[in-house]
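Case study 2.
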Amino acid sequence: MTHHADVDTGHRKVVNSCLGQSLHRLQHNMNHVRQSQSRDEGEFLSWLKQWSKRSDQIAMRLELIDMQLDRMFPAPEPEVQLRVIDADR
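Prediction:
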């Protein structure tokens, strides 16, 4: 028969058994995963904010380049095309 000893940790009683130890490890790992997830989400939001600003800067630079190219090489005026229309048709 397995000996079960209750240990008072201040907040909870932990049962010293295989199941109690497994549950304790699971809880510890879940806390670690939550902390890692929170940190990763923060880093992702920071990265997203940084690249959002850079994306706006790139778009503005491309617009300026397009305007400069339009001034340097204006689009040719469309050629006037004349057509003869037969009124009898």
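The mean pLDDT is 83.
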